[in-house]
């Protein structure tokens, strides 16, 4: 198979683009798709500072690398989740990556700095582990960005992630989640801007990008995520994609272009109802935010400023 | 040929030689869910694999619901 652009031997075939690329043209393709997502959804200004949420997985490490390649002042924030060897290995991948490329890395360790780990927090709060993890990440990444003065947080959510989330939200016709599903959530009082620059790139592309750049990412799936619905939705969408290339992208981008606006009122109503959390001050629909309630139940205390450790390259 | 499947990691024996596409079909793997690494380089489905090659089929699906 030959590269569509230069006819050199191809290393990857992307059926939804009806194309195959050699190593050089594939990297250019990743740059173009990321640049286009940032431009089309007005995610970042050229050269802007941005805090990248890094996990040690392929998507976040590739994103961090891509943003630097595109000229952004991208620093990383790693959140240690306290999930035994999985967290130890994830942290090692992130630190090695930051040291190799000379990138600035900030860290928060959930057990040491916040007082609970994800398995324990999920058990005590009677939440699914992925729910406790997502809540902790959203809260702590946002708080860190505000404290450190980053105008935006970038996450490694890719096309497959977003399509799977959309499938789940659509199966439930969950208006609030459908309204919030967008590649950029603008900044507002108490919230840094949140951007998803990989929304035009799939999981295969991100894994391939890491292999091409010899980026050593954690291959093992989080042990807490096994069997969750999100992974099942991805399998369903991959089966659909196999028989109908481009179906995933059409599902997601046609929703974003044509349907999401119909739910806009839900977001406005939600934002109007937010007030400051009585404990930490973060915006919340109740008296005390969900994260402070989780922290109180899991560790017995809440509201203390979170410790941030920074590693200078 | 010995094929290393990653995430979870295990090795399987498959009769060769084969193309990558035929290998994935024999293993009942959806091509959209993996990348294939032959002797440390990415390859497409038409690449031919010999018995002596070092072949890895790496699953790329990941993530919780956050």
> Total number of helical segments of chain B?
1
How large, in whole angstroms, is the Cα Rg of chain A? 19 Å
First-residue to last-residue Cα separation of chain B: 39 Å
> What low-confidence regions of chain A span 5 or more consecutive residues with pLDDT below 50?
none
Kindly name the structural category of chain B: mainly beta
Would you identify the regions of chain B where 5 or more consecutive residues have pLDDT less than 50? none
Topology overview:
The complex is a heterodimer of chains A (313) and B (66).
Chain A: E1 12-14, E2 19-21, H1 23-40, E3 49-54, H2 58-69, E4 73-80, H3 84-101, E5 105-109, H4 110-114, H5 118-125, H6 129-148, E6 152-154, H7 159-172, H8 175-180, E7 184-185, E8 193-195, H9 203-212, H10 229-243, H11 247-259, H12 264-272, E9 275-276, E10 283-284, H13 290-299, E11 309-311
Parallel strand pairs in A: 3-4, 3-6, 4-5, 6-8
Antiparallel strand pairs in A: 1-2, 5-11, 7-8, 9-10
Helix pairs in contact in A: 2-9, 5-6, 5-13, 7-10, 7-11
Chain B: E1 2-6, E2 10-13, E3 18-19, H1 20-26, E4 34-38, E5 41-42, E6 48-49, E7 55-59
Descriptive notes:
The complex is a heterodimer of chains A (313) and B (66). Chain A has helices at 23-40, 58-69, 84-101, 110-114, 118-125, 129-148, 159-172, 175-180, 203-212, 229-243, 247-259, 264-272, 290-299; strands at residues 12-14, 19-21, 49-54, 73-80, 105-109, 152-154, 184-185, 193-195, 275-276, 283-284, 309-311. With 313 residues, chain A is of the alpha/beta class. Chain A has one domain (39-218, 228-311): Rossmann fold. The relative contact order of chain A is 0.16. The longest helix of chain A has 20 residues, at 129-148. Chain B is mainly beta. Chain B is built from 1 helix and 7 strands; from the N terminus they run E-E-E-H-E-E-E-E. In chain B, the strands form 2 sheets. In chain B, strands 2-1-7-4-5 form a 5-stranded mixed sheet, with no helix packed on it. Chain B has a two-stranded antiparallel sheet with strand order 3-6.
